[in-house]
Write a structure and sequence with these properties.
The protein is α+β, with helices and mostly antiparallel strands. It has 2 domains: about 35 residues, no CATH class; about 90 residues, 2-Layer Sandwich (Alpha-Beta Plaits). It is about 45% helix and about 25% strand. It has a 4-stranded antiparallel sheet. β2 and β3 form a beta hairpin. The chain starts with a helix and ends in a 6-residue tail after the last strand. About 15% of the residues have low confidence.
Length: about 140
């Protein structure tokens, strides 16, 4: 009886697995066709992930630092108002990675152009790396 119990449990498990496959799912697996799922599939949209990194300028006087930071924040607000910046925020800690932007632009050249106008980047406090990033449209962003 002890040897029979595992076999019965395995048989019950396989029965549930087989019952879980409907004719529609079997058709989808064998032919790749699933018209209802195709209608429900989300559209994928490309965004641009920007990794902000420490720049070569690490020390400034407090007054200069305050001015650069104010201009940096004003630039973020302007880009957000224009719909070009979707997400912006700093990372904790004091390592090389300082923060991220997620940008909604036509290409990386547009992103780079907008970033070069940022005071923190223009003054060398920050550098950046741009990467393409995809997500479902309207999943998190419009």
């Amino acid at each position: 009886m002890a040897k029979l119990l595992p076999a019965l449990l395995l048989a019950a498990f396989l029965a549930f697995v087989v019952a879980g496959f409907s004719t529609k799912n079997a058709l989808k697996l064998t032919t790749g066709a699933d018209t209802s799922a195709a209608k429900e599939r989300p559209l994928i949209k490309q965004y641009w992930m920007v990794f902000l990194k420490k720049g070569i300028v690490t020390e400034q006087n407090e007054a200069a630092d305050s001015i650069v930071q104010a201009k940096h924040m004003a630039n973020i607000r302007q880009l957000a108002d224009e719909g070009k910046m979707v997400v912006a925020g700093p990372f904790g800690g004091n390592d090389e990675l300082r923060g991220i932007f997620i940008m909604d632009c036509k290409d990386s050249l547009e992103v780079a152009s907008l970033l070069r106008a940022d005071a923190a980047i223009a003054t060398g406090r920050l550098t950046f790396e741009i990467r393409p990033w995809w997500t479902a449209k309207n999943c998190l962003f419009k």
